[in-house]
Amino acid sequence: MSTPHPSRRVALLTLGCARNEVDSEELAGRLSQDGWELVDDGGDVPADVIVVNTCTFVESAKKDSVDTLLAAADTGAKVVAVGCMAERYGAELAESMPEAAAVLGFDHYPDLGARLDDIVDGRTVAAHQPRDRRTLLPITPVHRQAAAEDVTVPGHGWGPRVLRRRLDDSPVAALKIASGCDRRCAFCAIPSFRGAFVSRHPDEVVAEAHWLAEQGVRELFLVSENSTSYGKDLGRELGGLEALLPRLAAVPGVDRVRVSYLQPAETRPALVAAIAGTRGVADYFDMSFQHSSEAVLRRMRRFGSTASFLGLVEQIRGLAPAAGIRSNVIVGFPGETEADLVELEHFLTEARLDAVGVFGYSDEDGTEAEGLPDKLDEDAVAERVARFSELVEQLTAQRAEDRVGDEVLVLVEQAGAECAGRADHQAPEVDGECLLPDGAGLAVGDLVRAKVVDAAGVDLIAQPLEVVPRRTQP
Fold this sequence. Notes:
This protein is of the alpha/beta class. Helix content is about 30%, strand content about 20%. The protein contains 14 helices and 18 strands. The chain has a 5-stranded parallel beta sheet with strand order 2-1-3-4-5, sandwiched between helices. The chain has a 5-stranded mixed β-barrel with strand order 14-15-16-18-17. Helix 1 (about 20-35) links the parallel strand 1 and strand 2. The longest helix has 24 residues, at about 380-400. The relative contact order is 0.08.
């Protein structure tokens, strides 16, 4: 542990997905161990350094990251950029943003406390130099576990395990099961800066689940870049996600386990059965369809079709009729025709998904799609986004109305006059919520059995029936 300096206070700001939230909590644990005092940005006690965990998923996320860095610099604190945007652009970002005292990549994470000491003491810290992180690990997954110990992989291979420090008191916590991705989707740059796919050992994941439960967490939200690949780089005897889920669901204090980001083409019947049939695992399927036209999917370097995707939806609902299914779609991909759009409309109408994010295609630096012909202009892409946004708004509202009369388990995340939480089919932030207008007396963290009496868009309005005791035994 480093010797703490006088007045070393740090605030952490997190942008982007739940994977970034886990990274920030792990950085918070390391910084605390290194003698840094964590403070709230804008709180009564000013920070000496503000660390911004950036996102670079889409153009709007990049803009939000830049705006947050500039706003942090206006406070007078030293500002340090970390996270995906810093890893991806490194020295280029540092040159274009002199307001940042440093731009640091994933390889700086193990000794971030020491680097912040350098910054506060006026020593120059060289900006991160980006590289294709897929080249840092063996091509074949079977050899990756040993190699990952020597490479900084967010959430894995940071030397002695340091349990994270929670940055809020929510009853829901993301739990990272893997990092990186081996897929080569034509539109996606994530593998180049997140690296090849590496699973965390199941014992390590379960140990962290126990720790989270001790912090009051009742729902574990499993995150990675591709959860269907979990375990492919581990010994066969350790199993995949199907073997991990029952272990996590058995952790005392954990009442709900939710899986995120499943690749449809890799989703095996055994995994569908494990999610649908394991007590304590939410009947929730976050399927990354992206499109349903076979021609568009091939250009995207993905696999599937309207027929195969509808078959998967039918398989899921055959095992769990009330299951929540959500997805994202990209419209305006190079070469997309009106016939492709009709195909996508047909799929969405037949699939009756609970939530759908609609994104318009835009070029990402260094991706295959950036060089594809037959690009659509921005106005045409925007028109398609508007068209499909209106469609999915209608379809998801109808799906919510179908749930009127059902009983749901709601984890309360907001108490008081506007009591609200989420049911099994609703993930944090993206899928709507359950409003409990008669929830006076309920507390954040309560698990409530409720009856759905109405719907408002994707949100449900429910009448509380009883509070379910916290599970204390496996």
